[in-house]
């Protein structure tokens, strides 16, 4: 027996490693990477004139374009969305001082996460997708950037705001006022701190470059969404701050007010929808800047900010910059300057910018083969033509010549940007092909192993095609194929519940059919009343599960591409905390949490009753009462979590430890008593107890900050045990159907726990469970762990249920059958997962030029890979656990 | 001969079966994802169609005994008469057609008819047609 176990474990490990190899190969080709050139632009004195004495950046995180833009059709109606036409001071400046103020559409390149945006805004580069994981763990920026250039050229940089800047640019600032930023529920600390300090800094007038980073709008979006009265108050506050800054600055200062990205209608960001990429940029100076006759459009890329500010301050442009200066700002609008002179200013600046781009392309060509050689040659040709044109221009005085060369420069720079954009969204197809082939081989290998296994020990199962098997195969096939269609991936939550219900319906029919067969064998003629009673007896438990599945649908959340989606208010985040002073909302949120904890306790009581009925000699009878009391205490603490959150957390940890300890003691006693014969019913009995404990431990992480998620959690527990009750009695159901059920369960509850397969819908609030005060670097690993557990909880729980779904009665008879059933079940689970993984990989590969690759298929594939990983790890550990018990 | 009068009143039993079928299919529709009340008429339409497509052949072609019904519809019998065969195949084909039709509901095609319950109804009707074809084939070639 020990030999078979070891054999099986090594087989599973090998298969797992093989699969991991495929995934790693694929990921290496799929995740876009970029070679960072560790080179700085040389220091140059008087390489460009300094237009402004100082520059002020007001970075309002997540300031969307339509927050600032005046919407004349909606005006100031009371029923307009809360974020429309709130920034009246800025709108006043835009309307009445057009020579001093201008609003641009500020286009962000995806990924629109704050870390990537900050990097782009200071280096002028296009950060790739691979940096996305480092958002919680920011690090120093290696590439040449405007802040380093300022310091090297002796300018004083003052920074106020989000403390992630301090880790990105350590020792770069002349003065800094960092504030903690990771608590998304804290809307005011950063903003008030920045405002209180920026006014004296501006009055002192001793810094050349001032950066103020306001976080409140972004946090408000994450916590309450954009369409909320809190957002209105926040925007009005920011608007007042900006007005006072505009009024305070002197003639030699230029102010840039901008957002680093937008937000979706739910307040999240990270993807590439228009709502996320279109931020606002407002430029203001007391010196006139704009001339109505010169119009250069109203759209600016975020990379364009770096060269613009560098040249305005007379600094060299950072080495890796890909942006182009905003032309309007380099045309001095002064009476005593002739049009020729002002045009010459602009052309000189454009030339400096082009020189930098040329140097960058040359260096890039030396460091890597990313940019094809013929493109480089073409660009170099174009550049030399431009240089010739520039030397010839000093002899002419034609304004039209000036215009032509200006357009040439702009075209050249746009082309460089375009080529780099296409290169840094290029995939390594060879590695991706290799990864796909490895995964296909893995599936074939698994199928052969399973074929031989079933041939040897379970030849009966394949003898006759049964309804449930057919439904399982169809379900798995449909789910896998649907990964190729964006609408099915977008509505996967609905689809999975539909498939689950189909499976349950097939289960009802199978169960009923079995009973009727028995009945007909026993007495030939059925009466209608017997028939109805039989029907009721068989349908009732399955019907309960179907109702559970139905209820679990209500806690789904919306994602970007779902147009007609409405979230049930009941399950959404509470509207306002206690501190907001709105007592009606506060009371209703207390009632909500009381209700959800009530469900939590009732679910535990009900499940204990169910477990007792499934496993007749219930060992943990006495402990059941302890558990109920304990869960009541936890619930009471949870209800008052606003006050007691840290206490609650520690009470709960202590409780779990005590329970596990007592359980181990009990099972040791039990083991001593029945040393002679090992009863598998007792094994499963204690296993179900462990499942219950793990469920309680996970529940607090899964619910995060939203108590209402306890309801789908309770539903999940009830559904698991109901399924155990049904399936443990039915021997005729094949392992394939049981494995299908497990995989369906894992997806059903992934969506039910309020997740979607997108990067933006990760529950970052789970990081704050049991954490009081601000997030410190020490707490970060725990926070990361909590977010991971929160995301993968449904997979973990469903994988843990696997042993309970096996036919429990056969376990009593024969140890050998037990083992082979478990092995087979595990291999089938792996097979089903790998098939889905393969499909999502191929979908992400084949559709890599699809419009929605980063919005739909890419994230879906990454989630699937994580699911697979955790599912296999958990099934193996649950297997070991059952063997040990 | 089409209606077997032996079991009693010829209105009460069919009425019970059909209306019970409508109720059951309404519950099934809701469980599978239809809104509970907001599209009452649409859901009612589908459940009425399903109930009549599946149970009217059974009511007309089968004996009104539980044995006959369960054995036919659950494929327990080893030998089928033509009528029983049609009833069973019809039920399966109609259910499958409706199931496949539901898949269309989630697609993002911008068409008028892609609304609950139209694809499901079309699917179940097509299923009915397919079952008739199967029965004809059996008649011709078995």
TrEMBL record, chain A:
Keyword terms of this UniProt record? Endoplasmic reticulum, Glycoprotein, GPI-anchor biosynthesis, Membrane, Transferase, Transmembrane, Transmembrane helix
Species for this entry: Amphimedon queenslandica
Q: Where does it live in the cell?
A: Endoplasmic reticulum membrane
Gene3D superfamilies per the record?
Alkaline Phosphatase, subunit A
Pathway per its UniProt entry is:
Glycolipid biosynthesis; glycosylphosphatidylinositol-anchor biosynthesis
Q: What is the lineage of its organism?
A: Eukaryota, Metazoa, Porifera, Demospongiae, Heteroscleromorpha
User: Which sequence ranges are marked TM in the entry?
Assistant: 436-458, 470-491, 583-607, 627-644, 650-668, 680-702, 708-727, 739-762, 782-806, 827-846, 866-884
The GPI ethanolamine phosphate transferase 2 C-terminal domain extends over: 632-871
Q: Which GO terms describe its cellular component?
A: endoplasmic reticulum membrane
Q: What is this protein called?
A: GPI ethanolamine phosphate transferase 2 C-terminal domain-containing protein
User: What's the family?
Assistant: Belongs to the PIGG/PIGN/PIGO family. PIGO subfamily.
- From the UniProt record, give one GO term of the biological process aspect: GPI anchor biosynthetic process
- The UniProt entry lists the main location of this chain as endoplasmic reticulum
GO molecular function list:
mannose-ethanolamine phosphotransferase activity
UniProtKB/TrEMBL annotation, chain B:
Listed Pfam families: PIG-F
TM segments? 12-37, 43-64, 85-109, 115-136
Q: Which BP terms in the Gene Ontology apply to this protein?
A: GPI anchor biosynthetic process
Q: What is its main location?
A: endoplasmic reticulum
Q: Where in the cell is it found?
A: Endoplasmic reticulum membrane
Known pathway = Glycolipid biosynthesis; glycosylphosphatidylinositol-anchor biosynthesis
Could you list this entry's UniProt keywords, alphabetically sorted.
Endoplasmic reticulum, GPI-anchor biosynthesis, Membrane, Transmembrane, Transmembrane helix
As for membrane topology, the entry says: Multi-pass membrane protein
Superkingdom? Eukaryota
Record's keyword annotation contains Magnesium: no
Q: InterPro entries annotated for this entry? A: GPI_biosynthesis_protein_Pig-F
Q: Name one GO cellular component term.
A: endoplasmic reticulum membrane
Query: What name has this protein been given in UniProt?
Result: Uncharacterized protein
Which organism encodes this protein?
Amphimedon queenslandica
User: What does the record give as the organism's lineage?
Assistant: Eukaryota, Metazoa, Porifera, Demospongiae, Heteroscleromorpha
Q: Which gene encodes it?
A: 105316581
